[in-house]
Design goal:
The complex is a heterodimer. Chain A is an all-beta fold. Chain A is built from no helices and 12 strands. Chain B has no helices and 11 strands. In chain B, strands 2, 4, 5, 6, 9, 10 and 11 form a 7-stranded mixed beta sheet that branches. In chain B, strands 1-3-8-7 form a 4-stranded antiparallel beta sheet, with no helix packed on it. The chains are: A mainly beta, B mainly beta.
């Protein structure tokens, strides 16, 4: 079974600064996907960024980028130029290569990020 | 794209009562998922539908839980004889046909069992 660990229950950052959220995972699979989801107070889970394990290049989406270390099973999220709207719970999630169509996600416990003005 | 809609947003019930939640996925999405999220935890997978067929169920889904997706459109999740441990947020997600499509989540139904 896969597990996802987020060791930082809470973090805070000043507006416009950079913050990195940590995530480690455990799996015996060689092909899989990793995700960061954002859950603001509105409760809707929003996909921030996705990484395919077979790709060595780290994914980037505007101010969001990841540091994917496959051998270390580490997948951190860097948020640059933090904005007040980035305040939310952030969840790291794992998906093994879908079989039969099921894209089942395994989530970590989350990191509560607060961006201070 | 009107997003994934869930109803109700909040539900308070007494222990032993039955409750039913509804999820309306994005119209062209053939895959639908239910997750449960308890306080301080990430969401946990409950069940998965492809069209009207329920293809996977988690061991978390006890006999008191039943999910349906008639005609492959909206889905319902029913909990019979609710227990206090059922208190959680129930999230629905959908995705389109294809490989590794993005999951779109609804805002969830928050269940409180008194």
């Amino acid at each position: 079974a896969q597990t996802v660990t987020q060791s930082q229950p809470e973090m805070s950052v000043q507006e416009a600064e950079t913050v990195t959220l940590s995530c480690t995972y455990d799996t015996s699979e060689s092909n899989y996907y990793l995700f960061w989801y954002k859950q603001p107070p509105s409760r809707q889970m929003i996909l921030v960024i996705r990484q395919e394990a077979y790709k060595q290049q780290n994914a980037t989406e505007n101010r969001f980028s990841v540091n994917f270390q496959k051998a270390a099973k580490s997948f951190s999220l860097k948020i640059s130029d933090s904005q007040l709207g980035d305040t939310a719970m952030y969840f790291c999630a794992f998906m093994k290569l879908p079989q039969g169509g099921s894209e089942k996600l395994v989530f970590g416990k989350g990191t509560k990020l607060t961006v201070n003005p | 794209d009107t997003g994934v809609s869930q109803d109700p947003r909040h539900k308070i019930t007494k222990r032993g009562q039955n409750v039913t939640f509804r999820c309306d996925p994005i119209s062209e999405h053939n895959r639908l998922y239910w997750y449960r999220q308890t306080l301080g935890q990430g969401p946990e997978f409950l069940t998965y539908f492809q069209n009207e067929a329920q293809l996977e169920k988690s061991r978390l889904l006890s006999d008191r839980f039943s999910a349906e997706r008639p005609k492959g459109s909206f889905s319902t999740l029913e909990i019979q004889r609710t227990e206090q441990g059922d208190s959680a947020m129930y999230l629905c997600a959908s995705s389109a046909r294809g490989v590794n499509e993005k999951l779109f989540f609804g805002s969830g139904t928050q269940l409180s069992v008194l």
